[in-house]
Automatic annotation (TrEMBL), chain A:
Entry keyword set: Ubl conjugation pathway
Gene3D superfamilies documented for this protein: Ubiquitin Conjugating Enzyme (3.10.110.10)
Protein name, UniProt field: UBC core domain-containing protein
SUPFAM superfamilies: UBC-like
Source lineage: Eukaryota, Fungi, Dikarya, Ascomycota, Pezizomycotina
Domain UBC core: 5-156
Keyword S-adenosyl-L-methionine among record annotations: no
TrEMBL record, chain B:
Ranges of residues in domain RING-type: 7-58
Residue ranges, annotated region (Disordered): 231-253, 344-366
Signal peptide span: none
Gene Ontology terms: cellular component: membrane
Swiss-Prot/TrEMBL keywords: Membrane, Metal-binding, Transmembrane, Transmembrane helix, Zinc, Zinc-finger
TM annotation in the entry: 87-113
InterPro entries: Znf_RING, Znf_RING-CH, Znf_RING/FYVE/PHD
Stated name of the protein: Uncharacterized protein
Subcellular location: Membrane
PROSITE patterns per the UniProt record, alphabetical: ZF_RING_2, ZF_RING_CH
Membrane topology according to the record: Multi-pass membrane protein
Length: 156, 473
C-alpha cells in the first residue's frame, strides 16, 4: 500500500512537470526512476555567491512519501559544488524545516521544495557554513529527516 | 465545481467509480483528499506529535470515531490528573520534606488502619489507656523513634513504585526473615485470620506473584496495544537477523524501574547519541554505544517491574527506537558513508525493496516524561487514601456480619479465629488492605480495557467532513 502510494504520487508529480514545466532556474535532470530524482537549480538574480553556478539536488522518495518528506540533499560533484549557505552543511545536508517531519506536509511537492531551496539561496548573503559544520560532517550518521535541527534562525 | 476533486496526498483525481464516502473535505479551505490517504497522514502526525491542522489554512482537523463512554471517561480523568499532578507535586515538595513525611506517615497509618492504631503507635499504649507517661526521657525517645518510622512510609511507597525490582529483592528478603522470626516467637503467627504482621510478610510475596502473572499473561497483549495506538506495525520476527533487533527491543522493554526511567531521561536529554552509529554493516547491533549497553545489562533487574515498565512504555507509546529503521536509512544513502562503494549499490536497492522503511521512532518530549513521573509519584502517595476508600466501599457493599467484629460465627474467612483475633475484613486495616489490592487489580484491568477500546476505535475512525458551501448544489 505504502509503496503503491509513493509510486502513484511520484508519477503524478512527473506528469505535472511534463505537462506544465518547471519554474525558471529549476530543471529536472533525471526523473525516470520513481524513487530518486535529480534536479539542477540556479539562482535567478545576481547574488554574487551563487550566480555563476549550477547546483544539483538529489531527491530520494521513501516508501512512505508523501506522508513522510523526501530526502533532499545537494550532490557534491566537480561541476556541481555544494552551495555556501549557513543552513547547508558541506556534505550536502540541508537544514530546512520543510524537509523535517515537523515542517513537512503532503501539500508540498518536489517542485515546491526546489522553489523553497532556490529562494533560500537567493535571499542569502552570508558566505559561510553552519556552525559546527566539520564536526557534524564527521560524526553524523543519521538520516537527514531524523536529525533534530533547531529551526531557530528565520533570517536566512 | 466542475473540476474533479484531487487528493492532496496522492494527487489522484476523483473517479466516478470511487465508492461514496471515500473522499473527505477535512477543513473549511479547498483541501480535499481520500479518507485513506488522510488517515495515513493523520497517523503519522500523531506519531510525531504534530498538531492536526490543515497544512494550508491551519484550521484544526476533526476526527470522527466510535465513542466509548468508559474509554472516554478514562481519558478525561487521565488528562485531568496529568494536568493536576504537577501542582499537587509542587505543593507537596514546598511544604518541607521532613514535616510532610512525618505527617504523611501518620496520616497514612490513620487512613489505613484507623485512629486508634495511630494513637497507639504515636503516643504509646499507656497514653491511650490512662494517660500516664513512663518518664519524660524514655517517652521522648520512643516518640522520636516512632516519628522517624512514620517518616519512612512515603519513601517506601515511592520506592516501590519507582524501583520495583529493588523493592522485591529487598522487601522479600526482609519479609521472610521477619516472618521466620515471628513464627519462632509466636505460635499463632500462621493462623487465619492474619495478624498485621503476617500481612506485612505476605504482601511482598503476593505482590511479586501478581506482577509475574501480569507479565506473563497480560503484558504481551498490552505491549501489542501500545504499538497499535502509536501506529506501529506489530513486532513480528523477520528474517535477516531481525530477531536480534527484536530481542533488543524486548531487552529494553524488560528493563524497567529506575534504570529504564534513567535511560529515558538520557534519551530525552541526549537525542543525538541515541541514534546509534549503525554504520555500514547491516547487523549494526554491535555498533550500539557500548558503555551504555553494558550499564544496561549490569543493571538488568529480575524483570518484575511491570508498573514502571508500562509507564515508560506509555511515555514512548511503544516506540522504543527501532534499530531497523536506522539501518535501512543508512543503507539507502551511501553518500553519508563515504566508504560504501558502488558494489553496495545493487545490494542497497534490494534491501530497500525487501524491507519497507519503518517509520522513525516517536520520541517522547521532556514534558511527557515529567508528567508521567509526577503522575506515578502522586499516584503512589494517594494509595493509602484510595485503599481506605475501597475498604470503606467494601464495608458498605458486603453484608454487615462480614465486616463487623463482635459475634463469633465460626467462618474461616470472616469469623474470629480460635485465638480471638477479629477477621480480616472486620478491621479497618484489613479492609484497606483488601481494598487496596482490589484497586490495583481493577486499575490495571481498566487501563488495558480502555486501551483495547482505543485500538478498536482507531480502526473505525474517519476524518470528519466539513460543510462547504461550494459543494452544495
Amino acid at each position: 500500500m505504502a509503496t503503491g502510494m509513493r509510486t502513484k504520487r511520484v508519477a503524478k508529480e512527473r506528469q505535472k512537470i511534463d505537462k506544465f514545466g518547471l519554474p525558471p532556474g529549476i530543471e529536472l535532470v533525471e526523473g525516470n526512476d520513481l524513487k530518486e530524482w535529480l534536479f539542477d537549480i540556479r539562482v535567478l538574480d545576481n547574488n554574487p555567491l551563487y550566480n555563476d553556478n549550477v547546483y544539483r539536488l538529489k531527491f530520494v522518495f521513501s516508501d512512505s512519501y508523501p506522508i513522510e518528506p523526501p530526502e533532499v540533499t545537494f550532490v557534491d560533484k566537480p561541476a556541481r559544488p555544494v552551495p555556501m549557505h549557513p543552513h547547508i552543511y558541506s556534505n550536502g545536508i540541508i537544514c530546512l524545516d520543510l524537509l523535517g517531519n515537523q515542517g513537512w506536509s503532503p501539500v508540498q511537492s518536489a517542485e515546491s521544495i526546489c522553489m523553497s531551496i532556490q529562494s533560500m539561496l537567493t535571499s542569502n548573503s552570508k558566505n559561510e557554513r553552519p556552525p559546527g559544520d566539520e564536526e557534524f560532517v564527521r560524526v553524523n550518521r543519521q538520516r537527514p529527516r531524523d536529525i533534530e535541527f533547531l529551526y531557530h534562525d528565520n533570517t536566512v | 465545481m466542475d473540476t474533479p476533486r484531487r487528493c492532496f496526498v496522492c494527487l489522484t483525481d476523483e473517479e466516478p467509480t470511487d465508492p461514496p464516502g471515500s473522499w473527505v473535505d477535512p477543513c473549511p479551505c479547498t483541501l480535499e483528499a481520500h479518507q485513506d490517504c488522510m488517515l495515513s497522514w493523520v497517523t503519522d502526525c500523531e506519531r510525531s506529535n504534530k498538531p492536526l491542522k490543515c497544512p494550508v489554512c491551519k484550521s484544526d482537523i476533526q476526527m470522527d470515531g466510535p465513542w466509548d463512554p468508559i474509554a472516554h471517561i478514562h481519558d478525561v480523568i487521565h488528562r485531568k490528573f496529568t494536568r493536576a499532578s504537577p501542582f499537587i507535586l509542587l505543593t507537596g515538595v514546598s511544604v518541607g520534606v521532613q514535616f510532610s513525611l512525618q505527617m504523611y506517615g501518620a496520616m497514612a497509618l490513620w487512613t489505613f488502619a484507623g485512629k486508634e492504631a495511630l494513637l497507639r503507635f504515636a503516643l504509646g499504649p499507656e497514653m491511650l489507656i490512662d494517660g500516664r507517661s513512663p518518664g519524660a526521657l524514655r517517652f521522648a525517645k520512643e516518640r522520636i523513634v516512632n516519628a522517624l518510622i512514620l517518616m519512612n512510609v512515603a519513601p517506601t511507597l515511592l520506592i516501590s513504585q519507582l524501583l520495583p525490582g529493588l523493592t522485591n529483592r529487598y522487601f522479600m528478603q526482609s519479609a521472610s526473615i521477619y516472618g521466620i522470626y515471628s513464627m519462632i516467637r509466636n505460635d499463632n503467627f500462621l493462623e487465619w485470620p492474619p495478624s498485621p504482621r503476617l500481612a506485612m510478610v505476605a504482601l511482598p510475596i503476593i505482590r511479586k506473584a501478581y506482577f509475574s502473572f501480569w507479565r506473563d499473561f497480560v503484558m504481551p497483549y498490552e505491549v501489542k496495544l501500545n504499538r497499535q495506538i502509536s501506529g506501529l506495525p506489530p513486532l513480528d520476527p523477520r528474517e535477516n537477523g531481525d530477531g536480534a533487533h527484536n530481542r533488543q527491543d524486548l531487552d529494553r522493554n524488560g528493563e524497567g524501574g529506575f534504570v529504564g526511567l534513567l535511560q529515558n531521561i538520557l534519551d530525552v536529554l541526549d537525542p543525538d547519541e541515541e541514534e546509534p552509529a549503525a554504520g555500514a554493516n547491516n547487523g549494526g547491533r554491535e555498533a550500539r554505544p557500548g558503555a551504555r549497553n553494558e550499564f544496561r545489562l549490569e543493571q538488568h533487574e529480575e524483570g518484575d517491574e511491570i508498573r514502571v515498565e508500562l509507564l515508560i512504555q506509555e511515555i514512548e507509546e511503544g516506540a522504543v527506537e527501532i534499530p531497523r529503521a536506522d539501518n535501512d536509512g543508512q543503507d539507502a544513502h551511501p553518500q553519508w558513508d563515504q566508504a560504501q562503494g558502488d558494489l553496495a549499490d545493487g545490494h542497497r536497492q534490494e534491501n530497500q525493496r525487501d524491507a519497507p522503511q519503518a517509520p522513525p521512532a516517536r520520541r517522547m518530549g521532556l514534558g511527557g516524561l515529567l508528567s508521567s513521573v509526577s503522575n506515578s509519584i502522586v499516584g503512589a502517595l494517594l494509595l493509602p487514601g484510595i485503599s481506605f476508600a475501597m475498604g470503606e466501599a467494601l464495608r458498605l457493599i458486603l453484608p454487615r456480619s462480614w465486616t463487623t467484629a463482635p459475634f463469633a460465627r465460626n467462618h474461616w474467612l470472616f469469623g474470629p479465629s480460635p485465638s480471638g483475633r477479629p477477621g480480616l475484613l472486620q478491621q479497618q486495616w484489613g479492609r484497606s488492605l483488601v481494598g487496596g489490592c482490589l484497586y490495583v487489580v481493577l486499575n490495571d484491568i481498566l487501563r488495558v480495557y480502555s486501551k483495547s477500546r482505543r485500538v478498536a476505535a482507531m480502526q473505525n475512525r474517519k476524518v470528519k467532513n466539513v460543510d462547504r458551501p461550494r459543494r452544495k448544489k
